[in-house]
Each structure stands twice: as structure tokens, then as C-alpha cells.
Amino acid sequence: MTSASPSKIALQHHPARFTLMLALMVALAPLATDAYLPAMPSMAGDFGVDEHRIGLTITMFFFGYAMGQLGGGPLSDSLGRRPVALSGFVLFLVAGLGCALTRDFHWLLFWRVLQGIATGMTGGVSRTVVRDVATGKDAARLMTNVTMVLMTAPLIAPSLGALVISLSHWTTIFFALGVYGLLVGLIIHRWLPETHPPSERTPFKPRNVLRSYRDILSTRGVPGHLMLILCGPGIMFTFITNASYLYQGLLGMTPPQFALAFGANVVAMFVGNRLNHVGLKHLRMRTLVKLALGVQLTGICWLLGLGLSGMISAATMIPGMLVVLGAGAMITPNVMADYQSLFARGHGVANAISGTTLFLGGGLYGAIASLWLNGTDMLPVPLVMLTACLIGSIGFWITRHTAPSNQPSARSGATTSA
Predict the structure, then answer these.
(1) Cα gap 296→256, rounded to integer Å
(2) What is the pLDDT of residue 402?
(3) What's the pLDDT score for residue 161?
(4) Closest CA to 388 of 405, 416, 368
(5) Measuring CA to CA, how many Å separate 50 from each of 2, 21, 36, 42, 105?
(6) 132-146, 276-290, 377-391: least confident range
(7) pLDDT given at position 51
(8) In this structure, are residues 233 and 331 in contact, taking their beta carbons and an 8 Å threshold?
(9) Predicted TM-score (pTM) of this structure
(10) How far from 139 is each of 125, 332, 346, CA to CA, in Å?
(11) Selection from 198, 209, 171 nearest residue 70 by Cα
(12) 241-253 pLDDT, tens per residue?
């Protein structure tokens, strides 16, 4: 009889601390992308560029994030999770200081790419660790808590950034991000065990990396799961990108009212997250996802009806948005857990692919809606959300025979391993 690994012992004996560590790692990406959004006008003035050019800092961050995911995943499969995560936090600290100290716009873009690479490395490791220590419903429960941070941090970060710039200069935001990275790195160094033993590692060679990506992408069920993974985040990013336009532009809210309405979505997502946590005790993951997709589609149709009829008000729009985002919080953790259970090895590469799909795809949805808006209506937002939901629903149908949680062994209560 083999003994439990140190990582699984840590999860069993200190579940709250283990979950908190992963959540702190996951929060790095939304904090780095959204905390400085309120400071963009000030940054444009200091760098002497148009405000829309400051938006390139987000684009470059996501480019770096993709690089960090795609490179960090194979590295973590080869070197272990801890070295890659800790290296990411060191790089994040350096990049944060670079963003705060530079006075040249092109150097700012360079530092943002490095920040994205660092965040992609740490974010990928956090999701990979979940698969290392848990499978099936256990992984879904752990991923539910971690995903809660991933989906609510973007809603909180702009308010934190606005508070900082009301008290200090915009550079303080990047100094604060660097300090956050340092503190979390120290916590990870102290408490996170290595979850990927040497016996399961693969040598880091370009040929091996390419083979790993080919093997993951050719695995039966992967395309459908990636379509489904993108559903919740794609809809959330569409909202975040256009929230100011919807609430302040169309509804005419003041900044305090906007902050209150924006924060209400955190409550909705928390409720959806907790409902999923409770539901996992009684229902299969696929059942919860199907229910959440139906609720989300209903909310999107409501928003679509508002856009077509012109009956747009706070009393009609906000409840529909709360339903849509709350349902999304029930989809992502279950799908991620199922996706991770498809693979017996190569979890770092698998999570690199899913993380890149999540952030780049979600950002693309938001950008399409933003470019489509003409300043007089809200119709493009629910249309893009509907597209994301329908693509996710197609992915749900495609994976009906390949989802590990839908297999006979999972239905009868057996643990699905890979």
C-alpha cells in the first residue's frame, strides 16, 4: 500500500490554507489586468499618448500571458511546479517595479509583456496543482473555490485601483502589485509542497514539448471541453470590458452608483459558486453544468429582449446581468475539473492550453462587443454573450460521451482518474 504524497497530505490536513494559496496565485492575473484601469487617463497624460494607446498595455499583457502559459506548462512538467511558480513571482515583482519606474511608453509595453509571462507561469501552475492533488468531484470542489477568486477579482480590482489613485499616483498601483507578488511568493515558498514528483517528470526538449501539445490537442474530448471552458469567462470578460458603457453610459449612473452595481455582480457570482459547491454533494457535475447553461441562456435572452425592445433601465438590465454572471460561476469549475481528468500525464501542458484559451478567447469576446457598440444601444453585448453560450452548449453536447464525470464509473461513485 503506497503512502499519500506530501501534497495530498497538505490538502487533507490544511484544506483552507491549501485553497487560499491557490486562490492567491490565481488572483494575480485579474489584479494585474484590471487594477490600473481607472488610472488609464492619468497614464496617457504622463506618457504623452492617446488614451486608447494605453489599452495596448492590456493587449501586450495577454500576449505575454499566452507565452507564459505555453512555456510554463511544459517547464512545470519537466522541473516541477514549485520552481516555475516561484520563478514567476520573482519575474512579476521585477516587471511590476519596471512598470512603476519607467517613463517611456515602449518600455512600459515591454514590462507589461514580462508581467504577462510571469502571470501565465503562476496561473498555469495553480490549476495544474489542482489536478495533481485531486480528481473528479474533489477537484471540482477545489476548483470551485479557486475559480471564485478568478471570476470575482476582476470585479473588485478596478475599485481597489480607484481607491489607490484617489490617495496617490498611478505608479503606486504597480508598486502595490509588485509587493503583492512578493508576499504571495513568500507564502508559496513556505507552504506549497511540490505536487509533481521527479518520477513523473519529462525532460524539457523542444521535440518533447511539441509532442506533448500534439498529444493533448489530439486527445478525444479536448476540443469540446475547450469550447465549454470558454463559455463562462467569455461572457464575464464581455461584461467587464463594456460595464462602464452599459451602466454609466446607457443608464447614466454616477461613479458611486456604478461601483455599487458593479459590486452586486460579486454577490451573484458568490451565490452561484456556493450553489455549485452544495450541488456537488447531490448531483453529477454534468447535471450542474446543464442546469447552469439553461439559466444563463435564459438571462441572456432577457438581455437580448431589452436590447431589441429598447426597454433599458437599471431595474431591467441589472437583474438579467446578475443571473447571467451567477450561472457562469457554476459552469467553469466543473468543466475545468472534467477537462483535467482527461489526462493521465502532461497536466502542465493541458492547463497551459486551457489557460491560454480562457484568457485570450475571453478577451477576444470582450473586444468584439466593444468594437461593435455604436454608442446608442446595448444589443452587441447580449449577442456576443449568446454566441459564447451557444458555443459552450455545442461543446457540452460534443463532450457527452467523453466527459470523465459522465462515464459509468463516475455515475456509480467510483473515482475517475484519467
Answers:
(1) 28
(2) 75
(3) 82
(4) 368
(5) 61, 39, 16, 11, 11
(6) 132-146
(7) 61
(8) no
(9) 0.70
(10) 15, 12, 17
(11) 209
(12) 777 778 877 888 8
CA count, 13 A, side-chain hemisphere, 321: 26
* HEC assignment per residue over the chain: CCCCCHHHHHHHHCHHHHHHHHHHHHCHHHHHHHCCHHHHHHHHHHHCCCHHHHCHHHHHHHHHHHHHHHHHHHHHHHHCHHHHHHHHHHHHHHHHHHHHHCCCHHHHHHHHHHHHHHHHHHHHHHHHHHHHHCCHHHHHHHHHHHHHHHHHHHHHHHHHHHHHHHHCCCHHHHHHHHHHHHHHHHHHHHHCCCCCCHHHCCCCCHHHHHHHHHHHHCCCCHHHHHHHHCHHHHHHHHHHHHHHHHHHHHCCCCHHHHHHHHHHHHHHHHHHHHHHHHHCCCCCHHHHHHHHHHHHHHHHHHHHHHHHHCCCCHHHHHHHHHHHHHHHHHHHHHHHHHHHCCCCCCHHHHHHHHHHHHHHHHHHHHHHHHHHCCCCCCCHHHHHHHHHHHHHHHHHHHCCCCCHHHCHHHHCCCCCCC
Determine the angle formed by the axes of helices 314-340 and 285-309, rounding to 10 degrees: 150
Residue 43 pLDDT level (bands cut at 50, 70, 90): confident
Q: How many CB atoms lie within 10 A of CB 219?
A: 16
Residue 25, amino acid: M
* Nearby residues of 286 by Cβ (< 8 Å), 6 or more positions away: 334, 338, 400, 403, 405, 406
Q: Is the pLDDT of residue 344 over 80?
A: no
Q: How far apart are CA 337 and CA 145, in angstroms?
A: 12
Neighbours of 185 (CB within 10 A): 21
Distances (CA, A) of 413 to 83, 250, 282, 407: 36, 50, 11, 10
Q: Report which residue type is found at 109.
A: L
Supply 405's cell numbers: 464525470
What region, left, alpha or beta, does residue 346 occupy, with left being phi > 0 and alpha being psi -120 to 50 degrees?
A: left
pLDDT of residue 282: 87
Question: What value does the mean pLDDT of the chain take?
Answer: 81
Supply the pLDDT for residue 411: 46
Residues written for the chain: 418
